[in-house]
Amino acid sequence: MLRFIIKRLLVTIPTILVVITITWGLVRLAPGNFYSGEKKLPAAIEKNIREKYGLDKPWYQQYGKTMWNIVRHFDFGTSLRYQGQSVNKIIARSLPISASVGILAYLLALLIGIPVGCVAALKQNSKWDYTSMALTMLGISIPNFVLGPILVLVFALSLYWLPPSRWDGYFSLNLILPVVTLSAVYMAYIARLTRAGMLEVLRSDYIRTARAKGLSEREVVVRHALRGGLMPVISYTGPALAFLLTGTVVIEKIFALPGLGNYFIQASLNRDEPLVIGIVAFIAITLLLMNLVVDIAYAYLDPRVRYS
Amino acid sequence: MSDKQPRESFEHKMRDPALNPLGEPPQPGDRPDPDIIALGSEMAIAEADVRSAEDGEYVRGSSLWRDAWRRLLKNKLAVFGMVVVIVITVASLIGPALIKATLGITPDYIPSNDVKLIKSFPPFTGPNGEFSWSHPMGTDNAGRDQFARVLQGGQISLFVGVISTLVSLLIGVSYGAIAGYLGGRVDNLMMRLVDVLYSLPYVILVIVLLSMFRSQTARGQLVLLFVALGSVSWLTMARIVRGQVLSLKNQEFVLAARATGVSTFRIIFRHLVPNTLGPVIVYATLTIPQVMLTEAFLSFLGFGVQAPLASWGSLASDGAQNIAIFPWQLIFPGVTMALTLFSLNFLGDGLRDALDPQMRTD
Fold it and tell me: What's the alpha-carbon Rg for chain A, to the nearest Å?
């Protein structure tokens, strides 16, 4: 087990560095500069700016300095647009908002997706099965940026049940619409995955044994089938996290939440280089570490997986 | 639903590579699988049938393709999907020209001769609030006909979906086939790279790419979009093709080709790749909606298709800003897009059931 973890870490850490390098490369290779706007700057000012941000040095020194600061001090520098704010500070401020929306959305998706998928598998080829699978396909097909505004229109602007947007603390009604919008897609995926996993497990020999020894259907499903049937859902957690991160970008834009995704869009549009690199690196680190955790959990839960 | 029996026997073996925690597609060695070989040789025969049909000679008998077609037609949802996709595609392709010919409006026609017309009218509403057929989807803020714009947006969305999928096909199929056929250390290295790329937050990287290399022209941005979307969506395709090639490469027809001195390149692309066509078609059909969704997502955020071009994503983006007053500006492009994706997904699922029972995940 330990060897497995170490082996995976040996792949994960270089991958993180590669992502940071790719981002750095994309930012640096792109034509133009962050300071080149519509107006041409006087040569002296341009020279000062280049000196201040170290752009006058050769590329490998710039790259080396950026990487060294990140690896050694976990320091991504200072934002170019949000004057005097370090990238770390911006991430620390905006991450909890994105994370709370994302985690709540994922929990909601599990809470609804798993039962729906289970029932669909247990009553395969019934009306319920077809209806729920068609609905989940609909959930996968409706883009969240279409669903979000429509929900706002219905529940906020027509029925006046919920506030339409903006951030108002962690315990407020404002969170409901973003969370529901974000979770729709996962709900659909999780229901489908649960159904597929359960269908596979319900046909296996050990379920037949469990039934043969006279367990009630309820016990067969809850104690025996679910454990195996939920494996696809667990391994989906990794990709789900990636979706979640990109999903929150749109959700935060629609609902005007000051989260990580919103800062990322602004930074990309403004060409705020340190902030872009910082957020991408942060997302990559979170994603890869979460994938690692998921793999370990999977290996732990499924005895058929060997840690080779 | 006619082939219950064979499908059930496949059921316990299917494994979605994306769901495999270690990211390793099943090796041919660890499951002695007569079904794969049977399917493979059947496909080899099917290919011969198709080829002779192309030569103008009609071969009777039940080929894999004809069987698959029959099975597809029995699947009501897949047929529904296929019909909707065809209707929307044809409407997008000829619709704008047809509207111009009959009503004389182009998608970017702004009624600048009459200031009263430069505003957003609800669907089926004329300038004085009366019922009118002239704008079945209403107009946008500049008084442009939404129906024509949605159809034209469909052109761009479908175009991006298809071209980016072709790019990903080209990369994924070659990559997977080469890795699978060469095997050994090369394979190991190539697939490790795919595993690593799999775990990257690629949409985030695509946003960085699109925003940093933002093109001055709308066409330039479109090309950038193809490259970006195509170059991130080939990974699953590579895995699927590799798995297929692994199960095919030890068969007699490959041995025969090798024995007669056919080059490695030719074996891969003339003998192996055509036999992987079934799963490739299935997965390509399922890639199109994914790519379209990503494109819409990027356009919604303002990184994708740029004005004056419009896609369903960018139309929805414009509409989302006016959702409180002019909801039809979001609802029509959004619903059209959702309907298209829905239909493509069903068509893809139906094709999978019909062509390749092995790949079923449910």
Answer: 24
